């Protein structure tokens, strides 16, 4: 596969559908050159995709789990086989560094399809012990048997974020298909091309036509049509909290099921009992905000809360770390920090940094636009100190390579600071006493807590407290998310 500016169509019912409303340009965030042209979509294309999905879903739901498993396993094999061909396109449209594009995009997507190939074979029935029931006006008494059975939701609308387009989509599509659903996908407008390329690949893997559909667009119209469509049973959304609230409002009118993974403002708590090795681990973990896709990740530890006894030493080391990171062309092996997704996102992050200055914070590293490269939407790794909890940069999700540092005196203050934002997606505790960290984790209003690590466990339920989302996916919990529980009762 090349990164020439290819013109795409929508993928609906196993075929390419030319868009009547034309195309829009996808831009490489590093070179500012065209990567390709995505189709403009709207209600008409969404309706065609939903009708195709509805038609295909009923038969797919009756397909045996072994057959569903084989198809998903074949998808994983093809992703692994074709991964090197997809990486240049994926990198060009996302601006991800080589390390991220090669190691954490296609391979992780393949892993997710392989995991849910196994998931298709997991038991979907929970037998319940028979119960003696007295006669009522409703029915005779007797010994009543029952089972709880997971059934497909039906047609699932998948709306994904721009930071990890294929990985994020795989995390929705694979469990949804494993449970017998069909999907209509609306990728983020900034980088939908790789998601479109998956259409023929899934077809080659043996997936029946109509189960996987992709409609794109530069604006909100296709997403709004998908959420409002009366024949869509569920919306799975990853993105901003503000958009998630709008989706919830519309979905609620028809009681659509929702799974929403929204914004985050992760706090990394460095406790007073964190020794040298733990503080070193914390340093590298917080620095991952800059090095991992330029901070464009909702789970990033963008707030570091450091005990007073370690604060000065820690922020000094963190500032030195930021200054040493290599920023530039993401196609170069040595590059650690690549561009943000767009000029608009770069300008948004810069406005937050300027606002922090105006509110009295101190820029300890970065904070100005890099002088090079000559093209691209870059923000230098930035560390902001003298931050108070009320400041905008301490409360809102920036989605860029910016870390804010706040000191604390004791555990109570650390917990208060960590819980002081509307978000609750992922927090981290760094301590020399893991029992202490475990107890502190129980006080954090966060769906996920890492103790002395920012590593993820693939089987854990993933989702947020408060305004960070609704529901959980990941591991077997992902199968639960894309199914409905049905109780079946009979006389024994």
From TrEMBL:
Keywords attached to this entry: Oxidoreductase
Keyword Oxidoreductase among record annotations: yes
Aldehyde dehydrogenase domain sequence ranges: 21-488
Region: Disordered, residue numbers: 17-43
Organism (species): Streptomyces axinellae
Protein name, entry field: Aldehyde dehydrogenase family protein
Superkingdom of origin: Bacteria
Gene3D superfamilies according to UniProt: Aldehyde Dehydrogenase, Chain A, domain 1, Aldehyde Dehydrogenase, Chain A, domain 2
PROSITE patterns, A to Z: ALDEHYDE_DEHYDR_CYS
Signal peptide as annotated in the record: none
UniProt cross-references to Pfam families, sorted A to Z: Aldedh
InterPro entries recorded: Ald_DH/histidinol_DH (IPR016161), Ald_DH_C (IPR016163), Ald_DH_CS_CYS (IPR016160), Ald_DH_N (IPR016162), Aldehyde_DH_dom (IPR015590)
């Amino acid at each position: 596969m090349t990164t020439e500016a290819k013109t795409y169509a929508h993928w609906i019912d196993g075929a390419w559908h030319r868009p009547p409303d034309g195309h829009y340009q996808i831009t490489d965030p590093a070179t500012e050159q065209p990567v390709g042209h995505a189709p403009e979509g709207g209600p008409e294309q969404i309706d065609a995709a939903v009708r195709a999905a509805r038609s295909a879903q009923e038969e797919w739901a009756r397909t045996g789990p072994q057959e569903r498993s084989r198809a998903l396993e074949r998808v994983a094999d093809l992703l692994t086989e074709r991964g090197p061909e997809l990486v240049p396109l994926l990198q060009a449209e996302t601006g991800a560094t080589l390390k991220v594009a090669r190691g954490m995009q296609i391979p992780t997507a393949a892993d997710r399809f392989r995991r849910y190939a196994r998931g298709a074979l997991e038991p979907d029935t929970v037998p319940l012990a028979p119960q003696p029931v007295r006669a009522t006006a409703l029915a005779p008494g007797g010994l009543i048997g029952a089972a709880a059975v997971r059934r497909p939701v039906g047609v699932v609308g998948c709306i994904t974020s721009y930071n990890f387009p294929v990985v994020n989509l795989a995390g929705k599509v694979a469990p949804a298909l494993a449970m017998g659903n069909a999907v209509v996908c609306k990728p983020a407008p900034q980088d939908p091309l790789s998601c479109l390329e998956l259409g023929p690949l899934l077809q080659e893997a043996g997936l029946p036509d109509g189960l996987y559909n992709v409609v794109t667009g530069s604006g909100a119209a296709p997403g709004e049509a998908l959420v409002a469509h009366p024949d869509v049973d569920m919306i799975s959304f990853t993105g901003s909290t503000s958009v998630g609230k709008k989706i919830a409002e519309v979905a609620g009118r028809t009681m659509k099921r929702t799974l929403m993974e929204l914004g985050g403002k992760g706090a990394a708590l460095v406790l007073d009992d964190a020794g040298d090795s733990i503080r070193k681990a914390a340093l590298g973990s917080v620095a991952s905000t800059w090095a991992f896709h330029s901070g464009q990740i909702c789970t990033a530890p963008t707030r570091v809360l450091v005990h007073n006894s370690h604060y000065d030493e820690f922020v000094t080391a963190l500032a030195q770390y930021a200054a040493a990171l290599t920023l530039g062309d993401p196609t170069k092996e040595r590059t650690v920090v690549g561009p943000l997704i767009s000029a608009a996102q770069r300008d948004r992050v810069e406005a937050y940094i300027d606002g922090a200055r105006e509110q009295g914070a101190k820029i300890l590293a970065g904070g100005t636009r890099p002088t090079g490269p000559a093209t691209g939407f870059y923000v230098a790794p930035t560390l902001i100190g003298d931050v108070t909890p009320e400041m905008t940069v301490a409360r809102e999700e920036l989605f860029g390579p910016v870390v804010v540092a706040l000191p604390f005196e004791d555990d109570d203050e650390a917990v208060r600071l960590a819980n002081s934002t509307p978000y609750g997606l992922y927090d981290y505790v760094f301590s020399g006493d893991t029992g202490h960290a475990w107890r502190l984790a129980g006080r954090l209003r966060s769906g996920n807590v890492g103790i002395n690590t920012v590593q993820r466990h693939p089987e854990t339920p993933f989702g947020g407290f408060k305004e960070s989302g609704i529901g959980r996916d990941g591991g077997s919990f992902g199968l639960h998310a894309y199914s409905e529980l049905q109780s079946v009762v009979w006389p024994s």
